[in-house]
Every structure is written in structure tokens, then in C-alpha cells.
Amino acid sequence: MEFTVQQVAGLLNGEIEGDSRRIIKGLAKIQEATATDIVFLANMLYEPYAYTTEAAAIIVNKDFVPKKEISATLIRVDDAYVAFSQLLSEYQKLMQAAGVKIGIEQPSYIAPSAQIGSDVYVGAFAYIGHGVKIGRNVKIYPQVHIGDNTVIGDNTTIYAGVKIYHNCTIGNNCTIHSGAVIGSDGFGFAPQADGTYVAVPQVGSVVIEDNVDIGANTVIDRATMGETIIHSGVKLDNLIQVAHNVKIGKNTVIAALTGISGSTEIGESCMIAGQVGFAGHIKVANRTNIGAQAGIIKSIKEENQVLVGSPVIDVKDYMRSFAVFKKLPEMVKRLDAIEKTIANKSQE
After folding, report:
1. pLDDT tens-digit map of 135-145
2. Do 268 and 333 share a structural domain?
3. Rounded CA gap, 43 and 99, in Å?
4. Is 281 a catalytic residue?
5. Residue after which a domain boundary falls, among 51, 83, 98
6. Which pLDDT does position 102 carry in this prediction?
7. What is the mean pLDDT of residues 223-234?
8. Helix or strand (DSSP H, E) at 23
9. What is the SS3 assignment for 295?
10. Is there a single domain that holds both residue 202 and residue 297?
11. Same domain, yes or no, for 79 and 114?
């Protein structure tokens, strides 16, 4: 596939600075690009590469002011990162269209009562259970298991090895990456007088709304009763644990290795970094930002906070506290010296 800088700029509503006729054949990192690649510059840590890159074109912010001469053609946009993401999305669509998968490979099993929409792809060794409803243009890759009475919306992609248990609902335009498990039993065990545990039946379901991305090997447990709900626009990284009856609000983003305990509710448009741990039965306000390895042990009621630490506190308070913490060894030495001085004077 081949495009001119002019065509790319038109797609991005960008302003061209340089030769608009240069040919683009691929997308690359700014430090690795060849003469027919297009790159972007959003993080100024990478600015030095703008002066040495071999790329044909660089997508930059409109307010970018070069410190040296740049040989590449510039495409100026409002937000270089967003524009390049848009370009990657369009490139992916073209690649998928070039090698589009449609049809049902064998061996695979589709229950007679399952309903399959048009232009669906079902890979080899996939299993689609009784009463399943699958929308249009769904891609189900090899070795996917879809349990009985599950519903999957239009334009959703389910990659190899995903396991979706019975009675789950997946919306439109979702992507579920390899190894993810949707609808496994919640972690419910009742302690007995003799010290043993009895499993509590998990009879609820999982509901995943539209435009949700779920990373590889992420697990979303079914509700004990009712629903575990992932609302529209949520983006979950790899290796995340979402327990029974959890609710995650619209457009919230969660990084890898985060664990969310049962019945916790996370608000809309939150940003949660990696390895964050949530206690159960708490609520997190909308637009909360939480730093890596934080511990959330009680509800967060105020919106728009930035929190770090375990247990979490406001990031400014944390930085002030950490500044004191770093001084503790020196403070201990000084305290020891003062105590010795006092002890010596008391003996005089």
C-alpha cells in the first residue's frame, strides 16, 4: 500500500510543511524509520531524532518549533499522538481488509440452535454453544470457547484461546485478546465451623458493553447474583483480575496486573496504573487517577483526585511525605547525636 503525504494530511486534517508528494509506504518509530515511513513526535524526549530520522514525514503538533533543520516533511496537527493513533487505526483496517477472514473453518462446532450473523469468521477448533447469538462481521479465532446462551454484538473480534462462559453478553465493536476468560466463577467460599469452605454458587452473568478492549489473559468473573458490568469504552490491559459483581464505569482505563475485589464500583473516565489493588465493596469516584502499585482500601468519594501510595493519599501529600521519609536516616543520626550530648551533660 502506498500513499502520498498529501493524502495522509487530508485524512488527518493536517497542514503540510515541505514536499507533499513524498511517498508513504509504512509507519514506524521515529528512531527506526526508513525513507518511505511516516512517524510522529509527541514526546519531546524524542525530539533529537527529528533532526536525524530518515522518515519521509513527521506528524507534529501545530506549535512545534524546530531547533534545527529537518529533512522530513512535517504534517502539523492539533495533537500528534491522537493523529498518529488515528492513522494506525486506518492502516490496521486496510491490512485487515487485504486479508479479511470470512467463513467457518473445520473442524469446529456450532450448536444447531446458535444464530450466526453475516460475514462472520469462525476459526478451526472453535466451540459455539447452544442458544448463542453472534452478530454481523464478528471474528472468532481458533480454539475460542463460547458458552451456551451467550450474546455477541456486531464487529467484535475474539482472538485465539479466549474462553467465554455461558450467559454472558458482549457488545458491539469489542476486542478480546488471547487467553482472556469471561464469566468464570467469582471467588465465593463460605467458611464452615470445622475450618473447611463450601463454594457459594455463582449464578449471575457478565455484561460487556460496546467499544470495550480486553487484554490478553485478563479474567472477568461472573456475578454471584446479578451482573458484573464493564461499561462502554473501557480499556483493560493484560493480566487484570475483575472479581464478581464489579462495575467499571464508561471510558475507564486500567493497566496490567491490577486486581479488583468483589462488588467494587469504579467510576467513569478513571485512569488506573499497573498493579493497583482494590478492596471489595467500595466505590471510586469519576475521573480518579491512581498511580502504580497503589492500595485502595476505602471508597474514594471526591472526583478528579490524583492518588498514590498504599493506602492511597493525594499525590502532593505523598511527595511531601516522601521528601521527609528520605531524610529519616540523617534525622536518626542527628537525634542519636543529640541524645549522646544530653547524656554526657547529665553525667558532668
Report:
1. 999 999 999 99
2. no
3. 33
4. no
5. 98
6. 87
7. 98
8. strand 23-24
9. strand
10. yes
11. no
CB 30 within 8 A of CB 55: yes
DSSP-assigned letters across all residues of 228-290: EEE-TT-EE-SS-EE-TT-EE-TT-EE-TT-EE-TT-EE-TT-EE-TT-EE-SS-EE-TT-EE
If asked whether residues 153 and 257 sit together in one domain, one would say yes
Q: What is the sign, positive or negative, of the torsion defined by CA atoms of 175, 132, 122, 118?
A: negative
Mean pLDDT, residues 123-151: 98
Cβ atoms 89, 70 nearer than 8 A: no
Say what the pTM is.
0.83
| Same structural domain, 130 and 73 | no
Q: What is the pLDDT of residues 230-261, one digit of tens each?
A: 999 999 999 999 999 999 999 999 999 999 99
pLDDT digits (tens, 9 = 90+) for 164-219: 999 999 999 999 999 999 999 999 999 999 999 999 999 999 999 999 999 999 99
CA pair distance 112, 40, nearest whole angstrom = 50
198/296 same-domain check: yes
Separation CA 253–CA 285 (nearest Å): 14
Which member of 166, 177, 244, 281 is catalytic? Answer: 244
* Domain finish residue from 49, 78, 98: 98
Nearest 5 degrees, angle CA 94-CA 96-CA 100?
125
The CA angle 273-216-227, to the nearest 5 degrees, is 80
Residues 6+ positions from 236 with CB-CB distance below 8 Å:
212, 213, 214, 215, 218, 230, 242, 248, 254
